[in-house]
Amino acid sequence: MSDKNLNTVRINAGEWRSRLIKFPDAIGLRPTPERVRQTLFNWLGQDLTGLTCLDLFAGTGVMGFEALSRGALSATLVEKSSPAYKALIQNKQLLKAEQAIVRHQDALQFLSQNSQKFNLVFLDPPYHLQWLDKVLPQLHLHLCHGGLVYTEAEYALDEASEMLQGWQLIKQSKAGNVFYHLLKSAQLEEA
């Protein structure tokens, strides 16, 4: 895979501010737009010091690397696509991101084997495959108390929907065709 065949996306802030990470063309792979990432990190507060993060459909890895750049303790990046996984490994080496844990796995397989709890989960699955229906019900088990889930979808999430049962919709917005949301586990709050 030569560099001229790769796309780039820029890290917004923190230790690796303005650094470019490279990623291949792949079906369904679309980096979270810069404007959306800026809004998300405004919602979260700019400093993620000490947080453990999971980027479940890592793709470009920009969410996980952005979190590490802003002080996150660790970021686990899970990606099924071999070309995207290889690019994540290269970007980890390029940034010297020792706190990045890169897994070449299907999201559901990872969740079935994972016992770690995370403060923040980035969830940007491929569109039109009902991934949110499959993954959201399982995420309660993988969150620390007070943990948050950021998710993107091709549609706005509705708190009344069955899919969001057990979740509190904290914030939501839209940019272009991207609907993005910040969720908190209502189940964990009650426990």
Plain-language structure description:
- By secondary structure, the protein is of the alpha/beta class.
- It has one domain: Vaccinia Virus protein VP39 (Rossmann fold, 3-Layer(aba) Sandwich), CATH 3.40.50.
- The protein is built from six helices and nine strands.
- The chain is globular.
- The mean pLDDT is 90.
Radius of gyration: 15 Å
CATH architecture type: 3-Layer(aba) Sandwich
Poorly predicted residue ranges: none
Largest sheet: 7 strands, mixed
The coarse overall form would be: globular
Order of helices and strands: EEHEHEHEHEHEEEH
Query: Mind telling me the CATH superfamily name?
Result: Vaccinia Virus protein VP39
Q: Quote the distance from N terminus to C terminus.
A: 48 Å
CATH topology: Rossmann fold
Topology:
Blueprint: E1 7-10, E2 20-23, H1 34-44, E3 52-55, H2 62-69, E4 74-78, H3 82-95, E5 100-103, H4 107-113, E6 118-123, H5 131-139, E7 143-153, E8 167-175, E9 178-185, H6 186-190
Parallel strand pairs: 3-4, 3-6, 4-5, 6-7
Antiparallel strand pairs: 1-2, 7-9, 8-9
